[in-house]
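Late entry, written up from scratch paper. The run itself happened at the end of the previous shift, but nothing got recorded in the book at the time, so transcribing now.
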Amino acid sequence: MESEFIFDRAPFRSCHASTIAEAEPGKLLAAWFGGSGEGQQDVRIWLSCRDATGWSLPEVVAEEKSVPCWNPVLFRSSSGKLMLFYKAGANPMSWSGWVRFSHDGGSTWTAPHLYPAGILGPIKNKPIQLQDGTIVAGTSVECYRAWACWIEKSQDDGQSFRRIGPIIVPGQPYGIIQPTLYRCADGRIVMLCRSRQIGRICRSESRDAGETWTPAQPTELPNPNSGIDLVRTGEGLLVLVYNPTTRGRSPLSIAVSKDEGQTWRKVLDLETAPGEFSYPSIIQGQDGRLHICYTWQRLRIKHVLLDPMKLSRFA
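Output as recorded:
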């Protein structure tokens, strides 16, 4: 395992909710929100690039005057277009969804595009893309007491989305948010979700390309009301990054599954110290290595590189 901090010094006191993507072979982009504190008016979306020389100094890539920004999501579509989704609003109950596009690997970006009311784009985790080009994104809504997941599908490379849902845990109004998605060998799409007052990661699946979903149900995996993410490797291994506890956001660990998520085995701790280590984002690079970034004590963003074959041997 290799690890590094994305920046040493930053022009903000607090940061959270990072996302990572490979813009082109060997070139990584990471984004997060940063400012004086989550929900404060000076919180903006920051971006850093990693090449052979290391990570660049963070730069502001999105902001809204007098309104905080939240939860960026980077995604590179099969067309090569890079997308930066993010949210802006006083709180999660008043978010609007925004996106910027890049056609040159993140060197330049289009003007911010505001989605219509009710469309938020991927809420925390990267979408998946089907063979016909359809982008399937996991999103969610946080109301006063009721949380629910939704699916948004785009057939025009992220310009617009159509919403499907809600997906809920029956009898659990406090609910689920922030789904992460993967495809099974038989074509099913599965979502794993963060939960509130349930204490477990919850699971739902679709057998019709995301048009309909089963009621979500708790899994064996603990969840302390904290974000998760996973990736399915080219070899078919599912790699989940999560907090394996029902309280607090430490440790931050990795579990793997070789049977399409029916069973899981925790194989590695990324962090075990007291404090907050949370909101992971994980991808597999074109060289086969896994890249993970996450919140480190709300002060920094950490980047970890892993060999999936070594994880597979412990599964």
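Residues 1-114 form one domain.
(Scratch paper discarded after transcription.)
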